[in-house]
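Quick one: structure for this chain?
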Amino acid sequence: MAKKILIVGGVAGGASAAARLRRLDETARIILFEKGPHISYSSCALPYSLSGTADPASLFLMTPERFWAQHRIEVRTDSEVTAIDRAARSVRVAEAGGRTYDESYDYLVLCPGAEPILPPIPGRDRPNVFTLKDTEDAAAIRQYIAEHHARTAAVIGGGFIGVETAANLAASLDVTLAEAADQILTPLDHDMAQILQKELLDHGVHLALRDGVAAVEDGAVRLASGRTVPADLVVMAIGVRPRTALARDAGLAIGASGAIAVDADGRTSDPAIFAAGDAAEVALPLLRRTGRLSLAFPAQKEARRAADAICGRTGPNRGYLGSFGIEVFGLRAAATGLNERDIEALRIPHDFAYVIPFDRVSLMPGASPLHLKVHFETPTGRLLGAQAVGRGAPDRRIDVIAALLAKGGTLEDLADIDLCYAPPFATAKDAVHLAGLVGLNLLYGEFRQVPVAAVRGLVEAGAAIIDVRERGEYAAGHIRGAVNLPLSELRDRLGELPQDRPLYVHCRSGQRSYYACRLLAARGFRDVYNIAGSYLALCLYEYAEDRLTGRAPIVTAYNFQ
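Got it. Here's what it folds into:
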């Protein structure tokens, strides 16, 4: 007898589950319920529809009519599943027109997604306050801007949606991005996030960090600090929570993260009910737990896994690394695995390699710096995570590292991997190779380093900071109090260096200063440290905070190239 399978939710997870089920079982009756009017749209591209970068009409990837014609999958839009009767194996459906009815099932797949978090603040119900979770939200924002001739906007929340929304609204509005944390994009390390914060500032986006929202007022938003920012339009992008009311009311188990608990095949505590997407937990092996991961690939893959299990197919579930990418104006960032906060919370002994080579051969048009930071375990050299920021292809480098990370790769694997090369898109020794080699040098004690986050403290303490760039570079901008001993002159001027205290060496990006550290070690200097990322990384690290707080810079002039 043919199976009857009901699916709740028609975007990434639900549509993927439905299509996979049909490929595996031509005889099953598959019915997909969607609360809204549309299915299978590109939710990740919603912010880009606000600027016109993505044509709003192109967001829709499938229609109910095409789903039926191509797959014989019955789609019922404007139909909300409001209750599950597990004993009767049926669901209650409420249509937009008011009719309700029950629908039976053999298997049920829950893909209801997540809902935006709206803080209980005064003014959140004002007509100019929006979230951005679906195509209706995006259309409402565009319509409000046009009809009310909005000039200013406040975006509350510096996560993926908040940053992308702020960047796209900035094409036509004066935008303030407010974030309660001390940085945007908290999955990134603090130093890497600073590069993106500079990009936002450079494009006119006002940043309010360490400042949450207190109230929405007439034409403005009042922040927790008491500061008010102009806002004809307000977009709440504080975060999302999994939609679990349906599962909770049915008595299904909920995991520690607040999402629906599932086994390796996506099966809930009821063997006839599966869950996938933002509403369901996933395995996070690097974090040594299960949890939530609101990303498109896990949603689609777990939906496919649930469909496979319903049709009798099972396989290993290796979990997810949490790989992601984002573009902020012309700057791209990507990451995979654990960040610095994760590693420290897990108390894993670790170090990091930070390199800033050009993303392609430097003489090629468009060549620009690529910031790559790789975390690794000590003393094993096992890869833990990586982040990259640049205008070239940081995602390509992170994809390489993600593949190694998934297989338990090490620094040796990273340094030795055979990659494609041609001058227009890479260097013969790629950024990932350099990161692997630098990591191995650190692992084997070839040199020691300090992060750029430590430099302000060193300057304030009057530490011995040695700048080994050439004299012209030093004159164009340097760390206050640093002594200029160019690498080309260093061997002849060793007598000018103190031997009774630590030396902190830097250049532009860290390569020449590494050479200097090796030279000094060979000449008997025992307490020498390379400043990771050197002057370029330091300027990027310090700039946004200097601008936002008005503190005195520790450099005489910034250098970003």
